[in-house]
Amino acid sequence: QVQLQESGPGLVKPSQTLSLTCTVSGDSITTNYYYWSWIRQPPGKGLEWMGAIGYSGSTYYSPSLKSRTSISRDTSKNQFTLQLSSVTPEDTAVYFCARRREGYSLFDYWGQGTQVTVSS
What we know:
This protein is mainly beta and about 120 residues long. About 0% of the residues lie in helices and about 50% in strands.
């Protein structure tokens, strides 16, 4: 059973960098053909894909967030991390990590999500 768990601060001040970690169990983040994504949902809005890191370590970002987003991984801990810089209250959202297999459009495993609020 694959499990993903998000962790990080629930409150971030404007202009600071939001940093979240997704810890994966039941699968390796280096397993061929799998991509590990960050997705968020602002209050009252739909899901927004932010970016992903692939099994080879390649990264992919949403064009709208690319200038502020960085995704990295620690294979020794089987974790991948999101950093979002220069946050504003509009970055307040529930943040999810999720897995998707290459060639498939759906995410098959999700974390439970973590609420991040941007406020002074």
